[in-house]
Amino acid sequence: MSCTIGSLFTGCGGLDMGVEAALGEARKAWVCDVESGPRKLLAFRSPTLPNLGDVAKVDWGQVEPVDVLVGGSPCQDLSLAGGRAGMRPGTRSGLWESMLQAIDVLRPHLIIWENVYGALSAPAFSLLESRSGRLGVHGHGPVLRAAGRVLGDLAGLGYDTWWTIVRASDVGAPHRRARLFLTASDAHREPWHQRWQPKPSKTTRWGPLAESCGCDREELRLLPTPTSSQMDGRKSPGFSGSGSFYDLVQAGREGFAPYLPAIRRWEKTTRPAPDPLDGGRLSTRFVEWMMGLPEGWTTSPHVSLTRREQLRILGNGVVPQQATYALRLLAEIARHTKEKQ
Q1: CB 168 within 8 A of CB 176
Q2: What three-state secondary structure class fits 209?
Q3: Of 28, 50, 83, 266, which one's alpha carbon is 20 to 30 angstroms from that of 222?
Q4: Strand ranges, E, within 108-227
Q5: What is the 3-state secondary structure (H, E, C) of 76-93?
Q6: How confident is the model at residue 58, as a pLDDT?
Q7: Angle at 222 between CA 313 and CA 278, to 5 degrees
Q8: First-residue to last-residue Cα distance in the chain
Q9: Distance between CA atoms of residues 269 and 263, nearest Å
Q10: pLDDT at residue 80 is higher than 50
């Protein structure tokens, strides 16, 4: 069944691509992004598609309703690599409140929210009474976590929710990039997984691909995860497990040699990898390839993005194949949940 999609915090559109691949026939009604890089990209790739601009200033009563609302609210204050200010008023991650307002007014059938793994542990503010039960990865710390607040807010609007963690490496990408994916469906309407019937996820794709390149998962060294800041700078290896792009670039092409098995694996799913270096710097075309995007999607000279804008939009993006797998996995979880009720 076809659907209409509204996209918040659209960025490079990787999350939207993954959702469309999972749900099938779809029409995107509008996008919403206020940053300069995404605005340029969206204007070039979808010139006739309305861009609502600043999500905090949208009058949702004047916006076309959609069946599916997709969004990855800003993660800077939730990420393990950030300041960990949490999901609070006045923070970028606090823009979840704007997405919640859109949900309250538009009442979409299906909501898809994506964010960093740190959403399971970063603190959050809510007017609801704090209790000992919480969603998180530790048994100590703040009572309310960001992901827990999102679940509570959605439940308060009458939505059932399902969530999972999927890594980009689970679908063959050469970097880890663990992300939280959450779906929510109106409890009083037809279950979303029945209406759109995403294909079964079966298994992650790294298994046969790893075998075909003569390696297994444990032997693969993964590249650092692209981030929106300090792409060429020194980044703590604790956030990627693979050093930093700064170290790799300083070592030249030989620095990328230990990662060739992971690179070859992703090539089998996508296309031949571009040269990782461009004039002694990390190639933005290589980062675009790492993120599973079509060739030239952000790096084409016709898009007119600066190098800084390219790196920022790619570092904030979602691997489409990762999102597709997550949606199909969540559909299975939703089916099993309904069967047990």
Answers
A1: yes
A2: helix
A3: 83
A4: 110-116, 159-167, 178-186
A5: CCCCCCCCCCCECCCCCH
A6: 95
A7: 50
A8: 25
A9: 10
A10: no
* pLDDT tens digit sequence for 125-136: 665 544 555 555
| Dist CA 178 CA 183 (whole Å) | 17
Q: Which of 314, 218, 212 is nearest to 264 (CA)?
A: 212
Query: How do residues 129-168 score in pLDDT, each as one tens digit?
Result: 445 555 555 555 556 778 888 998 899 999 999 999 999 9
C-beta neighbour count of 257 within 10 angstroms: 12
Residue 246 pLDDT: 82
Count the neighbouring beta carbons within 10 Å of the beta carbon of residue 278.
15
Cβ atoms within 10 Å, residue 318: 27
Which residues make beta-bridge pairs with 223? Answer: 175
Residue scoring higher pLDDT (230 or 313): 313
DSSP one-letter string for 91-124: SSGGGHHHHHHHHHHH--SEEEEEEEGGGGTSBB
Q: What per-residue confidence (pLDDT) applies to 230? A: 53
Q: Are 240 and 178 in contact (CB under 8 A)?
A: no
The arithmetic mean of pLDDT across residues 304-317, rounded, is: 93
The C-alpha atoms of residue 211 and residue 251 are separated, in whole angstroms, by 29
Is-contact 185 222, C-beta < 8 A?
no
Give 308's contacts (C-beta < 8 A, 6+ positions apart). none
State the Cα–Cα distance between residues 252 and 276, nearest whole angstrom: 9
E strands within the chain? 3-8, 26-32, 68-71, 110-116, 159-167, 178-186, 277-278, 281-282
CB 10 within 8 A of CB 53: no
Q: Check residue 197 and report its DSSP letter.
A: -
Q: Is 214 left (phi over 0), alpha (psi -120 to 50) or beta?
A: left
Q: Which amino acid is at 276?
A: P
